[in-house]
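Consider the subject:
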Amino acid sequence: MAQISSEDEAQLQSMLRQLLLSVKEKITGAPSLECAEEILLHLEETDENFHNYEFVKYLRQHIYDTLGTMIEEEMEKCTSDQNPGEGTGYDTLVQHVTKVTQESKEYKEMMLSLKNVMTAVVESLINKFEEHQTRTKEVQKKTIKEKCFNYCTDNYSDSDSSFNQSYKFSQGKLQLILEQLDPGQPKEVRLEAMLALCSAPPSDVLNCENWTTLCEKLTVSLADPDPAFNDRILKFYAQTFTLSPLHITKEIYTSLARHLELYFLSGENHIPTLLTGVDVTHPNVIRLLKKVRLLNEYQKEVPSFWIRHPEKYMEEIVESTLSLLSIKHDQSLLVSQKILDPIYFLALLDVKAVWFKKWMHAYYSRTVVLQLLEKKYKSLITTSVQQCVQYFESCENMKSDENLLRTKHCGNKQKTFYSGQELQYIYFVHSLCLLGRLLIYAQGRKLFPVKMKNINDSVSLTDLLVLFTRLIYYSPSCPKMTLPEHAEDYSPASLVTEVLRILCDQKESAIECLYKSQVIDAFLEPIHNLMKETEAAANCSETALIHVADILARIASVEEGLFLLLYGENMNSSKDENPTGAHLIAQFSKKLLDEDISVFSGSEMLPMVKGAFISVCRQMYSTCEGLQVLIPYNLHYSIAKAWKKTSLLSERIPTPVEGSDSISSISQESQNIMAWEENLLDDLLNFAATPRGLLLLQKTGAINDCVTFMFNLYAKKQVSRHEKFGYGVMVTQMASTAAGAVALRNSGFINALVTELWSMLECGRDDVRVTYPRSTPVDPIDQSCQKSFLALVNLLSYPAVYELIGNQDIPNKSEYSLREVPTCIIDIIDRLIILNSEAKIRSLFNYEQSHIFGLRLLNVLCCDLDTLLLLESQYQVSAMLLNAQEENILEISGGHRDFIIDGLSVERNHVLVRILLIGGPLERILPPRALQKGNDPYPWPMFSSYPLPDCYLSEVTKRIDPKQESDIGKLLLHCKISEKQAEWIENCRIQFCQTMRTKPNIINGVVLAELFEKFVLHITENPSDCYFPTVDYKATDADVKNESLSSVQQIGIKMTVRYGKFLNLLKDGAENDLTLVLKHSERFLKQQQTSIKSPLRCLQGRYPGHDWFVSSLFLIMLGDQEKTLKVLQKFSRLLTSAFLWLPRLHISKYLPSDISESGIHPIYFCGAHYIEMLLKTEVPLVFSAFHMSGFTPSQICQQWITQCFWNYLDWIEICHYIAICVFLGPDYQIYICISILKHLQHDILKHTQSQDLQLFLKLYKLLEKR
């Protein structure tokens, strides 16, 4: 088909013409060439007649004739290769055959042949179309006069089509025009020649043989002083830029750039100087600005299409531009006598260097620009830096800058004259924007340092950033009241801040440019001056400080920047010697809040300055490491004090009286105060982002107001601009403490959460018009309810559960309305979990789905053993579940009974096994909650009474290997060698570590009991190792025999004894012994407690949960009551006891009163705080996963530690955990938690993606994968 006959060519032209005429309206209506191409590419999708076009039929037949046989053979081959029993997807088969066809030789030959033929047909069609144009020359002239080819148009195109022109322009006519353009010809002749040239079809002019000569003639003619003739040439240039392809417009552009270059280098032209300024009404200046503007408009448009052309075209455009802008006149002249360089005029027209921004945007052009700057035109960068340096040096004496900005931008009157000082400032702005764009990119930063003539040392990257920083507060500020709003965009501080913001947004550029101690010091310089009240302090404006705080907040929001502010480059976090940025910012913010800076007294902008610097502090104290550094400054008290003061002011604002003149002023004042009050509440709320910060927030007494503020934003579907992932983390942190849970309840948050859940699960509070039926759920928890389910899981930690439902009965009403919507957690338990009456079942529209939701929630709650004991003691959940299973039994023939297997019975069976069995991954077997395929969908036995079937119990190794007995003897022997106490303790630790590394399994049973006892007895004999004083305790068994334990403790005792007997650690009678141990323990600790008046339920007497550490120690001591009590009393003197034995510090007199009254245990505000801090450093991906999930490491670690990892680790691993913390110190509790989270990193990231991280960590056992 490569050789085509004339008949075939004519036929193809006819087909193609038919197609083009059919889509003519669509193409002509397209706004750009790219859109027209898109229309043609998607014609099959949009044109219902697509397959009826003759051209399309021709292509289809040609493809079938060429490739049809091959396609059929390939399909038969694929079908025959498929196994008879297997199905094959149609889409898969089509994809395979299409791939094979496209990779075949026949396909490539067909495409090449088709391309050649269609190229010939299209070229012939274009030529015929041009030859048969019917428009006359007069109509063409009229059309061109009506069409304005203004050179500042934005509608450039690379099209070289001549479809819309009037006639073929002959070579003879063009030769005549060339002769008429000769400078020796009369003015009228040359004007007529230019008119004819503008009227000619661009394709004919650009494709003529004499185009090069014409281009040279036009370049020479640009120097003609006649303005009318100049305008004709520029109009032709603008027309060419608009209608010509890049290889032609490139020549026009370079010729214009060459002309301007010669114009500025020639000494004959009258170019303005800085002394005379620029009068834009002067004819010479008008002509020059028109040429520069035409150049600049093309600069801004050409990046949109030069990537579609050879790189050499772009290189010529870039090089001609840089060559022009690099022109520098005699530098020996005085500044005032200096002749203006081309870049001054370009800056006048493009102040913010938009052309350079567009050239640097794409890698394709950026590479060329940077290479040329580095090799040939580095002087352009040098002069830009020089301009910034000169402006900075003159700032102190340039008080007229204020007038400059005022005259440049105020009013609507067009400016006609620019003084030398204004021109210098405009050039400075252009240089600043150019350098700012250059610094974003790595290759641009490599151009530094630059050497300047009048400075001995070169200017490095850091020097430039220090210069930028100082420009913010040393340059004159704009008078706020006299400038319109947009004038601020051109003030030095705003411009520099805009550049620095862009650098902050790019991590690499921020690290290389901003995260340097010299740059940070430059930012902090005005703060130093204000703190010391030096003379320079008076020159620092509030606006400059706000800009500085904005950049500092952005720096503090990134890990590397925060590290630099907190510790500096020398890792110094001291606040006394050479304080780091964090210390100085905190001190300054505290002074601002206390209004202890005289310079700003009475300033209207003082609240804005306060807010800006508190925002910097917030970026720091909302992280664990930042809070550690800022704690000494008590910012939480200062912010709370300012909030209380502002709150009182808002209450005193008089109510405006209708008709009074003061309404508007009072209203504005009220709005400002309210906004400031909300900002301060938001600042206080951010303390809740960390465990220790939450303690500080509670100390201020503003926690309820902060949570109410957060809930109000939540109800409006709003969030603070500083929160990327909403308030999930803060809610979870608060729910981990009793006071936080109470605040969430009082604010209405829990009410709203429960109501929203019920509307998704059952029905809303009001009748809402249903536009479409609800879909039937296919998952146990429907996707619409998943978010509410996870929110409840985050909320219901044990401290929250105890405050919300402790000592409260469920309603158990005799009748429930169908529209009765739950409002609290008790209602959720009553309506969804404990369905022990027909009234409750009948009140549910979706009984099975809602009850499964409740059972799933109960399953998660029972993972926290204290919550399980509370639910069991108050509501007897296990008895309720067993009774429900009993009711689910079906009587079958022969007197046999069998369980009905359905979704609810399977869920109940799983929950029952989890409730009634204690054990780690290898110690118990939890049945699945899904049915299996086959004849026996659920092989796991169900039960409705005790005992549990044996299949759920794992076999525990009870015997010790004979080889391990010798190792045990060696270990105990090593621990008896030295008689010196200190040496013995150190030797014992060494031997323990070696044994844990080599044979950890022998640290168990008798060995651990003996080691534990000896170690605690020895270490407590040294007063320096003891943290708590000795307590004189003389109570006997008879003294405590009649004392009672809480119902939670009593159920916990039974659970512990069951577990101990399962492990073969306890014998009969152990329950009484453990009861006595717990009674002694409670009495022993009561001697060290203080009375507290608090509304919190958890502080109303005894420890609210079960004592899991004492239960664990009882098992370690193999049920020996005397040894357990003896070791416990000695162990209570060690600091480790505060973190392993949680009841140890319950309302303890050893804690400060404000901490005791908070109800927050040190394991949370200290241990969990450090876990989060180290996790962020050691395993940042896991920390980020928690943050994105709205869950916190502190909550799950608090749960693990509280119950001594029961149900999460096997018993031997629990023993190792306790032993490591006792022998090596409480710090290892933190390291163990971090190690576990690191071990689970892969699973944590996977479940973060599937949005069930909370469920994974609470439900599944740790270290299950060996």
In short: The beta strands are 278-279, 417-418, 889-891, 897-899. DSSP finds 64 helices and four strands in the chain.
